[in-house]
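> run fold Nitrate reductase
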Amino acid sequence: MYDSLTNRRNFIKKMAMLSAITAAASMFPGIVFASEQEKGIPDNANLDWKKGPCRFCGVGCGILVGTENGKAVAVKGDPNSSVNKGLLCVKGYHQIMCIQSKDRLKTALVKKNGNYVETPLNEALDLVASKMKESIAQNGKDSVAMYTSGQSTIPEGYIASKFMKGAIGTNNLDCNARLCMASAVTGFLTSFGADEPMGCYEDIDHADYFVTWGNNMAEMHPVLFSRMLEQKAKRGAKIIDFATRTTRSSTASDKSILFEPQTDLAVANAICYEIIQNGWVNKSFVEKHCSFSKGLTHIGYGLEDNFQFTDKPEKIDFEAYKEFLKDYSPEKVAKYSKVSVKDIKYLAAIYGDPNKKVVSYWCMGMNQHTRGTWINNLVYNIHLLTGKISQPGNGPFSLTGQPSACGTAREVGTFTHKLPHGVVMNKKDREMAAKIWKVPVERIPSKPTYHATEMFRAVDRGDINFIWVQATNPLVSLPKTSRYRPAMEKKSCFVVVSDVFPTPTTDVADVILPAAWHIEKGGLYGNSERRTQYWQKMVESPGEATPDTWMFIEVARRMGFEDLFPYSKENHVEEIYNEYRQFHEGAKHGMAPLEVLEKESGAIWPYVNGKSTQWRYNAKYDPACSNGEDFHFYGKPDGKAVIWQRPFEDAPEKPDQEYPFWLNTGRVVEHWHTGSMTRRIPVLHQAMPNAYAEFHPDDAKSLGIRNGENIKITSRRGSCTLPASINERGLPTKGQVFVPFFDENMLINDVTLDSFCPISKEPDYKKCAVKVERA
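> ok
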């Protein structure tokens, strides 16, 4: 009897999983399952399989790379990885196909008399070092800058920080994670006093509801979305899509709710209004574990060069917060958000039900926002008011877009204001860095300098005379790129670019350095759930392609900093990581030792007493909690999380008579970011060969635009011509145009606005005004 019941349960479980897999595979061709992956691997293949993380997005899927005769020939999902459990998306499965591209950078190139000349790497590094020294001697330390990446490894980011801040003594270091995750950072810091999510991916296995805020997970994070679909099939979990356009995620969701761009701020406040009005506040949790604050309003949009902003938080009480929310009743908010009163109440009831577990997921839709910090705060408010936080299946979760935007940008500290632990503004943090780096504390500047947008504005103004760009493609990814291209072509700024492939950014470089791809070097990444993953070198790089870490070290040594960079070429990854771990010792952020990471498919920090901490701030799971209560938000001095009073404010540029459409930009499942890697993978390029502009059918009809016909999108900054897409993959609301930004031949970021959140300094790529005409 027991055996038959067990077999029946297993049969039902397997059928539910099969149903989820079938649904996912039919609806989302971007999801590839382990059994499908292995079809292309010959039965008699004698491959050496080596583990590591995927090169692409911030999910951090575990991969196994099959090597044969010194070459990488196959990839499959790592079944031992708790992240993806053997699944991969279409990008992950095909990732190694690009590294043998014919235009792979294999030698250093130096521009001489307007032409690139192949140059021995050592000679090119000599030139880079001499140009840095020359700029510093003539114009001071802040005349040189480095712009790195959330695709950089932890050792690369660490050495960049040590080189710029500890050796040279300038904070002119920022990274492309400023363009995607900075609002998540400031949101966490202002609400909790510590960065990064308090939960983990296992929340998916426990939640009753998933609410995705402006986040097309089916294409942006397909493996995680497939795990949600599995829970939908197995347990009846529900997915609520809250967005400005209908996407593949909307199609698979139980309910799709569309809102007017920028009004997510108002809807979040309306949800809080309803929670309070209906008595759904978890009073005990709020009284013990929360405080209330408000900041400045009408804080600007960062459109001016050298824009400066400092918030002035002020403590308030619950009654003042409740009074503030009176302007955000569902009836008032529905009038301008285009979300019905019924749907606002529906969302509030989900969060307010004490018997339902809810996880909120978001990515660029909330972070790339002129009020990005605020909207992060407001979603935290919802979870704090209801006490649905830091528990399995209950919590707010900010997803990352790059493989190590957490590990390398946020944890290592490649933002201008950051150090590997803490911030440059804090004396104790500078003293810690100085001690570990063995430099005078006075060498580390106490004030941040340029964030990403302002850094390239400084290049344009001539305030920066040397810039080193590593593992990123800013002349495709920056907002308002049309401003910076001419500046970077000027002789007044010496441009160095380290990359694997030629890009529009290498096109303006004075020196191009050939970089090793991730499996051609050892390294570590940190993913969205605080998971650190380590891999060892799997194959040799072609030609003189070299790990970025080692090129940084070589240039630092040439500039006279040999004593600060005593690492060996063979073991520098391990030596650097062990040095870096000193910054994070302790129960709040301890990093797993390499011997653990060598064996396992990653470990979540804080790693304490041989165990990952999956849920922070909850005393049941987190050994750093020390207040004797069930929860301890130890990032704040009083141990309490902050519920913020944040208003709705309009976008800086809205559609008008001359520019009547909203422009929204984003990604597609086939390509990753600027496409410099995925467009060199034939199967992905063939599947999505070029960018396009999505329109609502009614708008297309009124403009006389047919599917596939070339149209011209124009803003006050520039224009872009590309084919129209009507009733194909996505469906914008009326009055909105959506364009993916992966295509370097169709530079939509020439059109976008360089406004940003004044707190996080993250640009808003989702909202500006454009006009549309037939090309």
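Residues 1-24 have pLDDT under 50 and may be disordered.
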